[in-house]
Amino acid sequence: MSIVTKLARHAYRSLDQAIYDRLYGSLRIRKAAEHSRRAIDDLPTQPTLLVVAHPDDEALGAGALLARLTDTSIVIVTDGTPLDGRAARAAGFDGNDSYRQARVAETASALATIGRGEVPVFRLGIPDQEAVFRIARIVPQLTKIIQGGKFKYVVTHPYEGGHPDHDATTLAVHAACVLLRGKGLDAPIPVDMTSYHLVEGKMVYGRFLPSAGAGPVESFSLDTDQSDLKRRMLECYRTQSSIVDEFPRDAERFRMAPVYDFLKPPHSGRLGYETYLWRMDGARWRRAAGRALNRLGLLEPS
């Protein structure tokens, strides 16, 4: 990248931040009702919607849970394919179309491994790394899916700064639930599953970043058969082997989600996705999130 390009991007981001601060700096997220911080040990027996950012996230965070659930649906927000084509080329594909098709096939194989081919899977088709810019499109789709079932829980990513699509997905889930409750309609209880985040310069997998207001962590230990099942699910994701191999397979952890403030960083210091060579940082993500929340009517004067 040339110095001219870097300077132009810096100037644009500075101007964008100034405009955002002028228009949205005095606003805050509409307060959502907090659930009691009770345990969710009944999670495997309740109707549950699983909403994930990418193909493979459902197996990484809740593969063994999926095998136990009898009433569930899955929403995959993105197609797992960045627009720039670098991920496709790195995985050995000649373009995004073939890479996208491979990721669809991997999910089908993973679900077949646990005999859950009948699980409804809703694919929203948002390009990878673009979810935060499509929140206003994602939320109405989610609310429709939620209203189509009688889910007690909705399991999704925590807000931890590991991946911008993870954070956008949980924002969309929380926004959909707040909007439904605001209309006097039923909405499931948001539940976090573990993902990954940065701590002191190192990525942590399969553990929660502590968050005020979150419920107690329910750790479902996996026996030998369950661990083997999860391993076979993850092996279906050959295009994602580099990250899949980082996740522990001894347990799956969940907690009742706190009321997140998506206008503030999830933690101090550098975020996980800021370590990648992507055109995204936390400030840009939060500006996009704030604009989306405003369009949805979820911001109010502070």
Overview of this protein structure:
By secondary structure, the chain is an alpha/beta fold. It has helices at 3-24, 57-68, 86-90, 96-113, 135-147, 164-182, 224-235, 241-244, 282-295, and strands at 27-29, 48-52, 72-82, 121-128, 153-156, 189-193, 196-199, 202-205, 218-221, 251-256, 299-301. The strands form three sheets. It has a seven-stranded mixed beta sheet with strand order 4-3-2-5-6-10-9. A two-stranded antiparallel ribbon has the order 1-11. Strands 7-8 form a two-stranded antiparallel sheet. Strand 7 and strand 8 form a beta hairpin. The longest helix is centred in the first third of the chain and has 22 residues, at 3-24.
Describe the strand arrangement of the main beta sheet, using strand numbers: 4-3-2-5-6-10-9
Major pleated sheet = 7 strands, mixed
Please work out how many helical segments DSSP would assign. Answer: 9
Uncertain parts:
none
Q: Supply the helix-strand structural class.
A: alpha/beta
Q: Report the strand count.
A: 11
Order of helices and strands: HEEHEHHEHEHEEEEHHEHE
Radius of gyration: 19 Å
General form: globular
**Overall mean pLDDT:** 93
Q: How far is it from the N-terminal to the C-terminal residue, by CA?
A: 40 Å
Proportion in helices = 25-40%
* Fraction in beta strands: 15-25%
Features:
single chain; alpha/beta; globular; 302 residues; 39% helix
Secondary structure layout plus pairing:
Layout: H1 3-24, E1 27-29, E2 48-52, H2 57-68, E3 72-82, H3 86-90, H4 96-113, E4 121-128, H5 135-147, E5 153-156, H6 164-182, E6 189-193, E7 196-199, E8 202-205, E9 218-221, H7 224-235, H8 241-244, E10 251-256, H9 282-295, E11 299-301
Parallel strand pairs: 2-3, 2-5, 3-4, 5-6
Antiparallel strand pairs: 1-11, 6-10, 7-8, 9-10
